[in-house]
Predict the structure.
Amino acid sequence: MSDSSPQRTRRGGRHPQSRQAVTDLDDNLARVARDTDWDGVRLHVVTGKGGTGKTTVAASLALALAAGGRKVLLIEVEGRQGIAQLFDCPPLPYEERKVAVAPDGGDVYALAVDPEEAMLEYLEMFYNLRRAGKALTRLGLIDFATTIAPGLRDVLLTGKASEAVRRKDKKGRFVYDAVVMDAPPTGRISRFLNVNTEVAGLAKMGPIRHHADTVMKVIRSPETAVHFVTLLEEMPVQETVDGIADLRELGLPVGGLMVNLIRPPILPDDDLSAALDDELDVEAIRMGVKAAGLEDGAAEIARALAIEASDHARRSSLQERELARLADAGVPQYELPLLSDGMDLAGLYEFAEELRKQGAA
């Protein structure tokens, strides 16, 4: 954890610790009071190396956080429409739309942030220049501005999330119980979140600087946690470890580790060790194949099974080694299984339940 983050007890994941059981006060309200690893956090930033399932985990976390009657906003900032694909709905416009109902009631809303629309909103908010902004859009100047000044683009994107976190209704209650941001990949996350540094060369004072300062107050606060999604492979794990170190160096709040696509061992420990050393008793396997009624080609099947077992053992050994590297980061760790049927909407709900069971939401 960074020094700016509150100390949180590790639960769930590989080494669950006991936590206080909290009773559901009213089943009719479908609200379940829970003691989780991230009590008090309202902005959950999810990052990860490309191909690790970052968007899938962000969507699952949003469902988990919304369970029990809560209202959660899921924000996408990369323009890929990944959220719409996951929830099997039309491409998202630049407005907040309900995309799912969470377990036990609760709603997940989604927003695909468009930098151009965010710029128009910004011009209207601070300069009352939305009409002029539309004219600039037609001329392509807004796209030009955010291209030559990527720090401005990032402050607009992060600003939308921080605004949603702070937004209240007429009764003074927060509109959303939590906001989940499907953020850029790990290699860019530090620069993306450290918007104050990125806009320093653009503005020393004025609305842009004030906006960046407001965003950073939210990002650096105990209300924010940056979660990392990884696979148990050398490159994603190394990038995750480096990303955590970068955030800590900048004083940004490190969240948890979402370890995706875990493959559980299917062999006893002794057999795994033998398979890892290529010392399985192929003759015993052949006899087992014959006992199963596969007389023809039993020897060939036995050899193929031994090769498969060795591959599985090496994969299991790699997983254990990379898990040990991740454990050194000293943050809560959550494991999500490899789904045999692949990822679909039902899989999102399965992942959401896993995250809840392990204390992530």
